[in-house]
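Dear colleague,

Thank you for sharing your sequence with our group. We've completed the structure prediction you requested, and as agreed, I am returning the results in plain text so they can be pasted directly into your records. Please verify that the sequence below matches your submission; if there's any discrepancy, let me know and we will rerun it promptly.
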Amino acid sequence: DGDGDGDGDPELGKSSGRMASKTRLTRPTSPRMSTGGSAVSRQRSIANMLTPGAKATRLRPVDLVEALRASVAAWGDHELNRLLLLADENERETATTSIHHQWTGRLCGGVIDDVTNRWAPLFVSDWIDGVSVKTVSASLLMFFGCLAPCIAFGALTDISTGGKMGTMEYLVAQSVSGVVWSIFAGQPEIVLRTTGPSTVFLIELARACERDGYPFITAFAWTGIWSAMFMIVIACLDACTLMLRNCTRFTQEIFGLFVSAIFIQSGGTALVSYFKSDEYDLAHALFSLILALLTLQLGLWALQVRTSPFLLPTMRELTADFGVAAAIAVGTLTAYGSNVKGMEMLKMASNIEPADGRSSWVVDLHAGPAHLKWLAIVPALLLTALMYVEMNISSLLANKPENKLIKGPAHHQNFLVMAIITLVFALFGLPPMTGSLPHSPQFIRALSDVEEITVGGETRTNVIWVRENRLAPLLVHVLMSLTIVMAPALREIPMAVLYGLFLYMGITGLATSQLWTRMKMIAMDPRLLPPTHYVRNVPLTRVHAFTLVQMCCCAALLGVRQSPAALFFPLFLGALMPLRYTLTHEGVSLFTPEMLKMLDMIAEGSNAETAAGTGRKDAEDHLTIRGDVADFERSVRKGGGARWRSNWSSRRNSVMLDLAEVGPAINGAELLVESRESDTKRE
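Please find the predicted structure tokens below.
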């Protein structure tokens, strides 16, 4: 009886904690208390210990520890069952995904399989499944998401190529390719557009042609023709499998950081040039800077509204979805209302005609020297490598297990359709189109029904299901085609607003990157690091070493882009995949294969991450207490990792703890050790 024990124990009154108790849980004879008995009996024992009685007594710290141990065991049983179910689900997803990453051994085998397994049997359902309000909202979101960079990249290309290719070519290419893609692509949810690295390639090709005296449009046309032929060969030989099986997070994150750096560098350099130019005085330069920062800040604020507590959920979603378009509109209206003359505006043709003023859209392939067609093979190989990497990385990230796509990918068919589009566009002098980041994963997430789940104080978004359809991408590009007739209105957009859009795209690209998170962790207090899977399972020095290797690779890519060999930067990008595998070489002692798997192979929040955790003994999230308390303390110190250190540093009054507040991560051994120390001092 709890009352009797309280009267007979003079040391009980010296406890610093006070809790009412009716009965005392009998101390187990087995050292493995947490695993004995059913979960229901353990919950009843906890309830009996913490139920207030008629005569209140003080509970000793050792009894609170035992209550905590029983609570941990009850939670651990439930958590273990959940993790086992997730592990089984991950095995099924891995088995399904691996089918699409295998060689078929047949000519055009991958394309045929994609057509017979994905395109043909699901073509009708792809249209029916798109009849939804979610399709409309996702289409509007992606319309503005594609329109803004299309205008911005077109303006940048127009400036960098001296007017040989501009915004009109980008708008026409985006509109036509999107309509064709939504009908013939195997997986139309992958967003097809001209990306930042592709634009950089076009700019560098124009500079090389100007330096060597070749006509740019003709050289670009032959480059596109050869590149399309190479891509058709890749699709027919199932060569996409090589990229799908070997491209890991290491390459994807460096590529994403490289793209973000291009955006930030292009926008920042253009704004600085206003202060150095003789055409604009200081007032125009400062006003251009204000417009750019206004566009940037409005876009970032709109993005933060989605997770803010203000407004209704529907209004928050609408504000976040149309925030970029609203930022461009506000920046343009501010420039118009200021009545500042002489601002640099978006250059765009009045009619649907080429930017360089040629009479026909069809490119004259015989312009320039006769050997130009053969010389174009070199840049064509580089463009093929770039589009090969971009398209497959976009497909990999869009088909991550956590996105829960059920209709399956179509890597080879998508690559073949993209190659045919590239071939036709090259004949008309239109820029090449490839899979886009981060638009492809964003489009799939916009088509998803999601829920927020809080586990251990960390909130994660869980996808319930995705409306995979062709109607949404078709609607996006029908709207895009309508903007072509809005050329007079688009010419009123100041270039400073678009430069602010460059900064916005670069900063938001960084914010969604795990590499950027790890870069910030270098300067963080180790006790306050986020409880990610790699922090819990990889030594912190190895995490920082992995981050520094990626930063050096990205710096090398940026250095190559600024060098005379800038046209060859796709080769350096492709070299990242074999470089990643050298990190586990015997001569490199920084990483083990297990470390790289946690840092590189497992996506944050994926089922693979959860399944990997089920194989660890004494894992922090489902502790099993065996032996005496000293053994328990050692197991927590060994398995707890960064979270154990965080709990140690932020420990409050040890006895005055609320079980519901602390949860299963409580270090009960620490409580008992403190109790023993206090008993020793009293003795």
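Summary note from our side: Residues 1-37, 91-98, 602-679 have pLDDT under 50 and may be disordered.

Kind regards,
the structure core
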